[in-house]
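Late entry, evening session. Most of the bench is empty. Finally got around to the prediction I had been postponing all week. Sequence below, unchanged from the version circulated by S.P.
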Amino acid sequence: MKSAVLLAVLLAAVGASQLRAATGAQPFTPPRQLVFFGYAKAVTPQGKGFLVRVDPAEYLSGETANRAAIEDGVIAPGDVVPNDHYIRDEGHRLLTYRIAAGARVTVLTYSGGIRQTRIPVAELAQIVKGRNPRKRHLFEPKNGFWIRVASDRALSLDQQYSP
């Protein structure tokens, strides 16, 4: 019995060290940062920073997108999703993250071509409300963002191109 317990502990330690070597993460803890797709629904000032309310969604491509769209009844079996992507947004339950006033935010603008434009978080707050205080040529202000978070802090929001 003691040898079985010792073997289990040894295997767990070896697995944890391999996990640490492969990912740089400590064993049995979540990654230091996560990146997910979602829609910024509200950005409000709080203290020296802001709170951002996000509706997370799944941005899928390739065969994963096709199968999900078929399962959701969006396309018929054998069809493919347009533009090789499908966004599954089922829950609409919002998550709240703190975000520093100087955090990186990029939106898509159009000026002879589509490009990423860095903006302040305060400007994003206005865009989310439907305003455009800098009169930028926004490509599609309602497109979602790739959101990088660490614990309860949003570190950056980068808008995703979607035709």
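Two things to note before I forget:
Confidence is low (pLDDT under 50) at residues 4-19.
The longest strand covers residues 95-110.
Will write this up properly tomorrow.
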